[in-house]
């Protein structure tokens, strides 16, 4: 058996859909990190007076909130479209494409819930954070993988 090989992060992308049919996705420029997108279910306590320990059952799904850090590019339309989406309070389709072979695509719907002013330390490039709240897609899923 061959030794397993890790996959380098070089080439990972986050893309934003245009909402057309068929939908065209555009790479969001300048992403410096790719946080994990965790889908999880809430728990509901199901303990009765006769129990010796607390009991829990699964509740409904909890869409995650994620924050991406981007290099701040003043004239980049892929970044300014995120501000427009925040201002107009619209949902959009997004996808994360990983550089494994064959590549995996994770699709999700989200709203931009916040962004910050550009910031940096001494002698560093400006960066900016954007926060997304994932919402249920047309299939009732939070994230789909293809």
Care to describe what's here?
The structure is a single chain. With 146 residues, the chain is mostly beta strands. The chain is built from one helix and nine strands; from the N terminus they run E-E-E-E-E-H-E-E-E-E. It has a single domain, classed as Factor Xa Inhibitor (Irregular), CATH 4.10.410.40. It has one helix at residues 77-88, and strands spanning 13-17, 25-27, 40-45, 56-62, 65-71, 91-98, 104-115, 127-135, 144-145. The strands form two sheets. Strands 1, 2, 5, 6, 7, 8 and 9 form a seven-stranded antiparallel β-sheet that branches. It is globular, with a radius of gyration of 19 Å. The mean pLDDT is 88.
Task: Jot down its keywords.
146 residues, mainly beta, Factor Xa Inhibitor, 7-stranded antiparallel sheet, two-stranded antiparallel ribbon, 8% helix, 40% strand, globular
Number of DSSP-assigned strands: 9
> Which percent range describes the beta-strand content?
35-45%
- Overall residue-averaged pLDDT value: 88
Measured on Cα atoms, how large is the radius of gyration? Answer: 19 Å
- What is the name of the CATH class? Few Secondary Structures
CATH architecture: Irregular
Tally of contiguous helical segments: 1
CATH topology call: Factor Xa Inhibitor
Write the element-wise H/E pattern from the N-terminal end onward. EEEEEHEEEE
Task: Count structural domains.
Answer: 1
Characterize the largest beta sheet: strand count, sense, and whether it forms a barrel. 7 strands, antiparallel
Low-confidence stretches: none
What structural class do the secondary elements suggest? mainly beta
Distance between the termini: 27 Å
Q: Assign an overall shape.
A: globular
Helix content range of the residues, please?
Answer: under 10%
């Amino acid at each position: 058996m061959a030794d397993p090989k890790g996959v380098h992060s070089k080439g990972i992308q986050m893309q934003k859909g245009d909402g057309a049919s068929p939908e065209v996705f555009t790479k969001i420029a300048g992403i410096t990190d790719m946080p994990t997108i965790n889908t999880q279910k809430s728990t509901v306590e199901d303990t009765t007076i006769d129990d010796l320990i607390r009991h829990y059952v699964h509740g409904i799904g909890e869409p995650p909130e994620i924050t991406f850090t981007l290099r701040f590019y003043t004239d980049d339309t892929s970044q300014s479209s995120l501000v427009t989406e925040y201002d107009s309070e619209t949902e959009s389709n997004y996808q994360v494409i990983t550089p494994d072979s064959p590549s995996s695509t994770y699709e999700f719907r989200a709203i931009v819930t916040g962004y910050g002013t550009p910031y940096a330390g001494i002698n560093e490039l400006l960066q900016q954070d954007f926060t997304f709240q994932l919402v249920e897609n047309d299939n009732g899923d939070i994230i789909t993988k293809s």
